[in-house]
Amino acid sequence: xxxxxxxxxxxxxxxxxxxxxxxxxxxxxxxxxxxxxxxxxxxxxxxxxxxxxxxxxxxxxxxxxxxxxxxxxxxxxxxxxxxxxxxxxxxxxxxxxxxxxxxxxxxxxxxxxxxxxxxxxxxxxxxxxxxxxxxxxxxxxxxxxxxxxxxxxxxxxxxxxxxxxxxxxxxxxxxxxxxxxxxxxxxxxxxxxxxxxxxxxxxxxxxxxxxxxxxxxxxxxxxxxxxxxxxxxxxxxxxxxxxxxxxxxxxxxxxxxxxxxxxxxxxxxxxxxxxxxxxxxxxxxxxxxxxxxxxxxxxxxxxxxxxxxxxxxxxxxxxxxxxxxxxxxxxxxxxxxxxxxxxxxxxxxxxxxxxxxxxxxxxxxxxxxxxxxxxxxxxxxxxxxxxxxxxxxxxxxxxxxxxxxxxxxxxxxxxxxxxxxxxxxxxxxxxxxxxxxxxxxxxxxxxxxxxxxxxxxxxxxxxxxxxxxxxxxxxxxxxxxxxxxxxxxxxxxxxxxxxxxxxxxxxxxx
Length: 510
Description:
Blueprint: E1 13-14, H1 19-33, H2 35-44, H3 46-51, H4 53-73, E2 75-79, E3 83-88, E4 94-99, E5 103-110, E6 119-126, E7 134-140, H5 141-163, E8 178-183, H6 185-194, H7 198-204, H8 209-222, H9 227-230, H10 238-268, E9 271-276, E10 279-284, E11 289-295, E12 301-306, H11 308-313, E13 315-321, H12 333-336, E14 340-347, H13 348-358, H14 375-395, H15 402-424, E15 426-429, E16 433-438, E17 443-449, E18 455-459, H16 462-466, E19 469-476, E20 479-487, H17 488-504
Antiparallel strand pairs: 1-2, 2-3, 3-4, 5-6, 5-11, 6-7, 8-9, 9-10, 10-11, 12-13, 12-17, 13-14, 15-16, 16-17, 18-19, 19-20
Helix pairs in contact: 1-4, 6-10, 14-15
């Protein structure tokens, strides 16, 4: 049977040949994601790579092409009326059997190389999975959408049968969607500027600074710019050299901010968040179009994040998180799409409106937060600030008294940061929800319903016991939330309240 046809039969089907391109690009992306671990190897062989770049490039392209062909020939899938089965792998063979009723998240994506032929990828995962459960990487877009509708209708039928609900509830996928939020190009530019991660790139380039500097100087000299003249104290005053360095730094920062903006546009272009009955649907993407759906009842945690730039501009990033086991890294936005639904660069008013729509009974916008104990500050000063200051005092030369000045300055700076961190900490409990506030230069707000807690812990060290303090840990399907240095009696009261709620509240959120 041709791979362009999706049938509900027992026949195993091969992917469309265009999937080879997908496997090639996927291999390249994995290589880039792991490039940080390959930096030592590249640094050792940098001279060879520099002398024979064409050979290295040809070998890499050949390798990626072979990987794409092998993945294509060893990938089979089958779709029946009740489940999806996938076989893939060469040395480590996998046979995935995924019943429709177990599927929690469905993501459709259309990379740029699928646009002309109108193919899409469909990714499926379940609650409690250790990684993405199933992925059919090359289906006609119309067939992928129909499969998504079939899966959701099947899940609704199962739920309706268990709860003896009305037959009309089964028509979830055909319901009219309501647009809740859109992101303009201006919003995406702001998101790119406020969420720039330039420091990660600079750290990754550490081993290559000498080679990059030498190559840059050669390039500038070749076009008539004498770098040594610009930074020579004999030819120019110190303030002119400082001005040149400042200009160069600003230029580098502008370049990387532009790259961050372009990345935000690629990821969130034409962003829309819509609601179809009890499900959110997010669509976005420029070269690769993504469609992610999330059931409202499965949302475990709402997070409103504001770094210092977002605070200055009156913006925030709002995310809804459910089961986190399918997510990869917190720095990998694409990998988290199935378990984290992000609305970038929205105003505080928009954020509170969406949070109210998601969990109508929560009241984050009116909460008065309690502060944690000031012993948090003393712990940070004694365990972090003082040891670092003493170490600097021991290793720095004592000539001129600069060692005392530097170590004292470091002590004051770290102590101030610890105090600011303490000031950001706050918590509140209203009987149905727990609210947490934390941050350093920015502020993050967390809100989650008590009845969705999976575990609750009262943690108390020896030093905390002497001060009648404790820490509250609540484990959700999306991860663990912790509030340190609370009054011990209050922690016990909250723990008992949560346990009592879990005993009597039998609502299902799966």
